[in-house]
From TrEMBL:
UniProt keywords, alphabetically: Membrane, Transmembrane, Transmembrane helix
Protein's recorded name: PDZ domain-containing protein
Superkingdom of the source species: Bacteria
Alphabetized InterPro entries for the sequence: PDZ, PDZ_6, PDZ_sf
Pfam families: PDZ_6 (PF17820)
Upper classification of the organism: Bacteria, Bacillati, Bacillota, Bacilli, Bacillales
Regions crossing the membrane: 12-37, 58-76, 82-100, 107-124, 144-162, 191-212, 218-237, 249-269, 275-294
Keyword Transmembrane helix: yes
All copies of domain PDZ, residue ranges: 288-365
UniProt xrefs under Gene3D superfamilies: 2.30.42.10
Organism: Sporosarcina thermotolerans
Length: 389
């Protein structure tokens, strides 16, 4: 008996890792890193981070939010139909393979899946699939409440991930301004995977794994179903720096998520408010993306060449430039007492004193400060700086 239980539990875990969403996410994350490295090398002849960074961070940054969400969703008793999860996952797959991660917010998947079920109920009421019929889904009952609240919680998690993890992985690249100059912009294209445990009614898993944990409440059987949930993000910062812009986006997404949760809870008394909550989240998330994209395109570039020195576009991790506390957008005026205006002059000035480097830097706020750093043999020969050239 105990061996059967272990085998069935392993089968259920295997269902998670063999889920197409999980497998496609792994491949797509590798692709994200590959194209990012190509873009960085095209601009600076060197990559900022290893190509497998996105794949390694796919789950490493999101497992804690996933654990908290699973406890909240299952602990509070928010149940969802398997049909909604299937549609949700199918839409997520389409979003991933399109590489259009502006559309990879879970609020889009949740809303489209919910109203997709409504369309089936309205226009294809006789639709059946392996015994499941659309008539079993009550979209003006518990589903209106649970889907709205879950979608709002996903938005809160998305806002947290954007605010916490996009700045450090913003990829600089060079592009042309309207005047033909070269300027730096910053692109963050991320993918996170959250293993969420849903509470589903019925004996969906019992046919596959008879010993998978179930419980009965009020005559209804419930199962815990682990599902990989995808959160994608893609945005370009050019009129402002990534450490300023991306946290603002994260905070805005979090606020929209909290609003969706509050309206969704109100669906307990008036179920149609669950529909309203999903639409508010869908429109609000789209408005955030559009607002920041338009604002960045209409404004000028923040990191453009200046006659007063060399503009920093990026800093390699664990390099002398990072140890100095330099940040993108700052201007290096002099190196070892020599004024510099381009990358070659910067490199030549560093070689004047290869063991000890002194910099005069103009900060983003216009303040001038002096900095110095001892350079060792293994350190990057240009301080690890990516500059606008």
């Amino acid at each position: 008996m105990s061996e059967n239980v272990i085998v069935d539990l392993l089968k259920a875990v295997g269902l998670f890792f063999l889920n197409p969403v999980w497998l496609i996410a792994l491949g797509v994350a590798v692709g994200l890193g590959y194209f990012r490295v190509k873009r960085e090398r095209r601009s600076f002849l060197v990559r900022l981070l290893p190509g497998l960074t996105e794949m390694k961070r796919l789950l490493a940054e999101s497992w804690m939010p996933a654990l908290i969400l699973s406890i909240l969703i299952s602990g509070v008793g928010l149940t969802v139909e398997v049909s909604w999860i299937v549609l949700f996952s199918a839409i997520a797959i389409l979003s991933m393979i399109s590489f259009l991660y502006q559309t990879a917010s879970p609020i889009y998947f949740a809303t489209i899946a919910f109203f997709g079920l409504y369309a089936l109920e309205r226009f294809m009421p006789d639709f059946t699939f392996r015994g499941w019929t659309i008539g079993n889904v009550d979209l003006l009952g518990d589903m209106a409440l649970t889907v709205a609240v879950i979608a709002g919680l996903f938005l809160v998690a998305e806002g947290f991930l954007i605010r916490r993890h996009t700045v450090h992985y913003a990829s600089p690249f060079l592009t042309s301004t309207n005047r033909g100059l070269r300027a730096a912009a910053y692109k963050s294209k991320r993918l996170w995977l959250l293993p969420i445990v849903f509470l589903v009614p019925g004996d969906f898993l019992s046919a596959i794994t008879p010993y998978w944990p179930q419980f009965t409440l009020g005559g209804t059987t419930f199962s815990f179903l682990p599902v990989p949930i995808i959160i994608g993000f893609s945005q370009v910062a050019r009129a402002s720096f990534s450490d300023i812009m991306f946290p603002k986006i994260g905070r805005a997404v979090t606020i929209i998520g909290l609003i969706v949760v509050i309206i969704g809870i109100s669906a307990y008394w008036l179920p149609i408010l669950g529909w309203v909550a999903l639409l508010v989240g869908f429109i609000g998330r789209a408005a955030i993306t559009i607002f920041f994209a338009i604002r960045e395109r209409k404004s000028g570039f923040a990191a453009v060449p200046k006659p007063t020195g060399v503009i920093i576009a990026g800093i390699l991790p664990e390099s002398p430039g990072e140890k100095l506390g330099l940040i993108p957008g700052e201007c290096i005026r002099t190196v070892n007492g020599i004024q510099v205006t381009n990358e070659k002059e910067l490199y030549d000035a560093i070689q004047v004193n290869a063991a000890h480097c002194r910099l005069q830097v103009i900060g983003r706020d216009g303040e001038v400060r002096l900095m110095q750093q001892v350079l060792y043999r293994h350190d990057h020969h240009r301080l690890g700086l990516l500059v606008v050239r």
